[in-house]
Amino acid sequence: VSVVAVAADSDFPLANIPFGVVATSDGRERVATIVGDVVVDLAALHRAGLLPPALPDGVFDTRALNRFMALGPSATHAVRTRVAELLGADGDLDAVRAALLEREAVAPRLPFQVGDYVDFYSSLEHATNMGRILRPGTEPLPENWRHLPVGYHGRAGTVVVSGTPVTRPNGQRRGEGGAVDAGPSRRLDFELEVGFVIGPASTRGRRVKTVDAAQHVFGFVLVNDWSARDVQAFEYQPLGPFLGKSFATSISPWVVTLDALRPYFVAPPVQEPPVEPYLRTDEPWAIDLELEVDIAPRGKTATTVTRTNFASMYWTAPQQLAHLTVNGATVRTGDLCASGTVSGAAPGSRGSLMEATWGGTDPLPLADGTTRTFLEDGDEVVMRGWCGGGRGTPRVGFGDVRGAVVPAPPLTSAP
Ligand code: MN
């Protein structure tokens, strides 16, 4: 129960208390949380002396979560606990009123300054589907896949917040007849992913043990890892994804903390063969997190094209973090580690159009009577995610991550 109204189906009850950055109409940005449909200005609460006294001056009066995330899990816990007291059943609405903002009156900003961006490939079903589509007749999983969480280093500078339009990328691709030329991608796709963001940095030369992951993982966001399949297919050998992935990656505006998600941790799938000792973990870090993807053509009704669950991921965050640092590489505050496309085994649970249309051979019907193999200009992709909400567990949600496709700029014949 809260002193502000929270609808039963809200993603943001007091059990959540996620963190983000918002701007008011005067352009001023500050760190905030959200309860129901009310945004709480944490910089204002801090100035009013209502937050834990050990917090550094100005830690919320800024345009990124990085300084706060670097303080580590004890600071996160202290602030969430205090906000729950201030806004809970025994809270004092008059004391906090000056810090409350209507959700419609603020604009969400990119919640943290993204350090390095890593994209994994941790869904067994996704990796298997992609192998079957791209290399039919061969073993779908690469030999390394069950030994280590496969990933690549992506482009941090093009991570954008939900609502940012996504321009169709130009690039080189092979056409129907087999000729290679340059132009707008004809196979623009989404990838449904969930990412974790790093709080405290690690030390160069020292690996992060799986048992220490909770000291470094601040929280999770929804990720749409936009992909140009035709550009990707032509460029990816021998060094891996490049321009087919680097043009945009969208994230949800509210970072849901590890603390808020812990009640929904479940055991991940059994790993066979057993993994190397540095990748082992006994903690149940799979997350029972429902996920959905809608496609809404401009001005038309949305169609839900995917429903799946994050709990099926083969590799979990502590394993990804342990692998990322086993060679001595560091993680820094604000680094974003995305899961890889989340796909289930059933046809309606595939986390990309590449899989849902089986490489573009099986078009998806939409509610407006059209079909899609890949995204068209004007299409908006909306991803939602939430834990709980039934059988007495509170709903802890992520809100959504959305982005609409705008046409590619012309790529003229002149250099
Ligand atoms: Mn991806």
Please estimate the helix content.
Answer: 10-25%
Query: Assembly type of the shown chains?
Result: single chain
Described by strand count, sense and barrel closure, the largest sheet is:
8 strands, mixed
Structural class: alpha+beta
* Average of the residue pLDDT scores: 96
Overall geometric form: globular
What's the count of strands?
A: 26
Bound molecule kinds, no repeats: manganese (II) ion
Q: How many H/I helices?
A: 11
Spans where pLDDT lies below 50 across 5 or more residues: none
What is the CA-based Rg, rounded?
21 Å
Roughly what fraction of the amino acids lie in strands? 25-35%
Report the end-to-end length measured between terminal Cα atoms. 62 Å
What can you tell me about this protein's structure?
The chain is an alpha+beta fold. It contains 11 helices and 26 strands. The protein has helices at 42-47, 66-70, 73-87, 93-96, 124-134, 213-216, 229-235, 243-246, 258-261, 317-325, 353-356; strands spanning 20-23, 29-35, 38-41, 100-102, 107-109, 117-120, 151-153, 159-161, 166-167, 170-174, 180-184, 188-189, 192-198, 217-224, 227-228, 249-251, 256-257, 265-266, 286-287, 290-296, 303-309, 336-338, 364-365, 371-372, 380-387, 396-406. Strands 6, 7, 8, 13, 14, 16, 17 and 22 form an 8-stranded mixed sheet that branches. A 5-stranded antiparallel sheet has the order 4-3-2-1-5. Strands 9-26-25-20-21 form a 5-stranded mixed sheet, with no helix packed on it. The chain is globular and about 70 Å long. The N and C termini lie far apart (62 Å). Manganese (II) ion binds next to loops. The site of manganese (II) ion has 6 residues, from loops.
